[in-house]
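Narrative of accomplishments. A recurring question from our advisory board has been how the design workflow behaves on a single, concrete structure rather than in aggregate. To address it, we present the structure tokens for one chain from the evaluation set, followed by the sequence designed for it. No filtering or post-editing was applied between the two.
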């Protein structure tokens, strides 16, 4: 089997059997391809622990971030798990390789007042402006990822019960809740502005599979466009923070934790596979409380 065939089969394994997202599958495919190119004429079946260490020493010369290096190690470990399953190797040479410890960085978030400032600055007198307000209202109210918002179809909306079905990483399905205000903007967008955003283009009606958010040609709004909407809005306000769709997600989670939400509930709403991913927001909350105390208490 050639390396190209091996990579093709490995990627199919990631997507079909492991249920990895397309983004992760592409990243792993790229990482393993780079490793095979580095091996040259050596077969991946001949690789041992020392060879892996040699490769990681080579990779370290490029000063990758710890997160990137961890992903490369994870990609190779998964690749050799696949080779073990296919009985192409007997042992996984990555078993004794540990990933570098991740740097603990607290996610950036917006205060409630900053979010309101952003939302209220959007001009809703145009169809695209009203769509943009609906988009940011939904991001703030639900904490969903930008890819989940872009992928929303009309059949995913259960607005009578204030629920939206989203498909997260690895196509995992979950239900998020939407506030009355966000629902109001979303319903008004769907009933009026959505048809007008497309500027003379007809929006293809696929029933329940029709995209909720469309661009000016009637096609599904891309994640890049959502980011551009946020960038153009925030630039006018000159906020001292970099604001991205994920910052809205962090802000949503932080606000819930600060107001006493149960960690497991927040985990479910965010679609985190592990509670450890959600616990970072308790650190943010504690840090924010400390800063507020030091700024406001006369004896701090």
């Amino acid at each position: 089997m050639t390396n190209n065939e091996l990579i093709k089969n490995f990627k199919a394994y990631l997507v079909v059997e492991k249920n990895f997202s397309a983004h992760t599958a592409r990243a792993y495919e790229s990482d393993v391809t780079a490793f095979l190119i580095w091996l040259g004429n050596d077969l991946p079946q001949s690789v041992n622990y020392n060879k892996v260490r040699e490769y990681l020493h080579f990779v370290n010369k490029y000063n990758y971030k710890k997160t990137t290096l961890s992903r490369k190690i994870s990609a190779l470990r998964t690749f050799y798990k696949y080779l073990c399953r296919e009985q192409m190797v007997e042992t996984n040479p990555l078993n004794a390789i540990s990933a570098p410890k991740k740097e603990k960085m607290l996610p950036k978030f917006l205060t409630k007042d900053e979010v309101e400032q952003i939302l209220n600055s959007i001009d809703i007198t145009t169809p695209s402006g009203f769509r943009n307000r609906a988009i940011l209202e939904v991001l703030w109210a639900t904490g969903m990822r930008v890819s989940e918002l872009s992928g929303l179809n009309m059949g995913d909306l259960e607005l009578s019960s204030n629920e939206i079905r989203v498909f997260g990483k690895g196509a995992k399905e979950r239900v998020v809740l939407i506030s009355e205000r966000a629902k109001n903007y979303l319903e008004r967008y769907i009933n009026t502005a959505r048809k007008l955003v497309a500027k003379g283009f007809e929006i293809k009606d696929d029933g329940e599979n029709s995209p909720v958010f469309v661009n000016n040609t009637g096609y599904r709004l891309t994640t890049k466009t959502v980011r551009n909407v946020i960038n153009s809005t925030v630039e006018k306000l000159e906020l001292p923070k970099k604001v991205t769709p994920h910052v809205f997600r962090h802000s949503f989670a932080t606000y819930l934790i600060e107001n006493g939400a149960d960690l497991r509930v927040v985990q479910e709403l965010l679609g985190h596979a592990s509670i450890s991913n959600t616990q970072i927001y308790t650190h943010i909350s504690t840090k924010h409380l400390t800063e507020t105390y030091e700024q406001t208490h006369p004896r701090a």
